[in-house]
Amino acid sequence: MTKCDKTLFQSLKILLKVTKMPDQKTTSEKKLVKKPNYADILCGMGESRVMFRWRSSLWKLLWQELLAYTATFILISMVYRYTLTMEQQVQLEKLIRWCRHQSTGLPITFLLGFYVSLVVKRWWEQYCKLPWPDTIAIFLKGLVVGEPGEKRVVARMIRRTVIRYCLLAYILCIRRISSRLKKRFPSMQDLAKTGIVRPDESSRIGDEESQEVHGSNWWMPLKWSVEILNKAKQEGLVTSAPGYSHMLGRLSEFRARLSEVATYVYLPVPLVYTQVVHLAVYVYFAVSLIGEQWIIWRQPGDEEVDLYYPIFMTVRFLFIFGWLRVAETLYNPFGEDDEDFELNELLNRHFKVAMTIVDENEEHPELKKDIFWNQADPELIENPEMDIEEGFGDDKEDFVFK
Fold first, then answer.
1. Which of 30, 80, 97, 192 has a CA that sits 20 to 30 A from residue 253's CA?
2. CA distances, 180 to each of 14, 176, 186, 266, 272 (Å)
3. Could you state, in chain order, the average pLDDT of each consecutive group of 10 residues for the chain (402 residues)?
4. C-alpha to C-alpha distance for 355 and 141, rounded to whole angstroms
5. What is the value of pTM for the model shown?
6. Cβ neighbours for 353, distance < 8 A, ≥ 6 positions apart
C-alpha cells in the first residue's frame, strides 16, 4: 500500500465516523457503559460499603462475644429488677455506683493503644522483611552469561540452580514458622516430590524435623549457591568482578532478611505485656456488667433514663474488644487467619517470576522507534488518531508522530 493509498484510506475512515448515525455507538463507547451493581445500591457506595463486609470484619471477629456479653448484661438486669427485694435492690445500687466510679480510673485506652500499635508495627515489618528473589534473578541474568554453545547451557543451568536454591532456603526457613507452608510441605519427601530439591540434596540437608530454634539447615542451599557462583567465576562465566561482588551481596541480604523474619517469631512481644493488656480489658468489662446497669428511678436525683439495653456500652465493647482482636489477629501473621500472609500464593509468584527471569524461553520484543521519537515535549496522553491495528501490524511501518 502506497502513501497515497494510506492517506485516502484515513480520509474515508474519518468521513465514515462523521456521518455515522447518532444512535450508533462505537466500540469504545460501548465499553464505557457500566451495568448497575445491585450490591452497591443495597450497601451503599464508597467507604460505606466497608461496614457491610464480612470477611476479616469486626462483626466476624466479635459477634459471639458481643452476643454472650449482652445476654449476660440483660440477665443481670432482669435479676435486679424482678427477683430482688427492695432492700436488696438498694444494696445492689450502691454496688453499681461504686463499680461505675472505680472503673473510670483504669487506663484502658493507653494500655491497649500502645499494645496494638506495637503489634501492627511488627506485623508490617515482618511482611516488609520477607525477601524477594527478583533482584538476585536479575543479577544472575545479566552477569552469568556464557558463550554460544556448551558454556551457555552451563550458564543457564547455574542461573536456574541458584534461584532454586534461594527458593529452597526460603521454604525451609519459613515453613518452620508458617502453618500454611507447613501444611503444604509437611516433610522433605513432599518437597522432593515438587522438584524444588533433589533426593541427594535432601539427604545432605536432613529431615528438618528439629523443634529447636536454630536446629534447621535452611542456610545450606545458600552456601551451595555461593560455591556454584565462585566456580562459575573461575571458569569465566562471570567476567565482571564488581558485578560478582554485588551478586554475593544480594545473596547475603537474602539470607539476612530470612534470619530477621525468623527472629521476629522466636522473640515475640513479652508475655507479661500481653497478659497485662488482656487482664485490663477483661476486668474492665467484667466490672462494667455491674457498673453500667441502669438504676431504677424512684425519686428526684436518680437516673431519669431507664433502659434495658446497654447501647453505649455495646459501642464501647465493639471499640475496645475490636481493638484487642486486631492485635490478636496480627500477633502471628504466619497462621491461617483472614489477615495472615498468603505465603502459598507469594511463593508461587516468586517461583514463576524468578525462573522466567533467569531462563531463555523467549527473546525480547523487536527494537523499534516509539511514537514519541521526534517530540521535543512528549506527553503521555491518548492519541485518538492512532489506530492500534494499523500502527502495530506485522506489515506496517513504525508509527511515529512528527
1. 192
2. 58, 10, 10, 18, 28
3. 49 46 43 46 52 69 83 87 85 84 78 89 92 95 88 93 96 92 92 93 89 85 95 91 94 95 87 89 87 74 66 84 86 83 93 92 84 86 65 48 42
4. 10
5. 0.74
6. 133, 134, 137
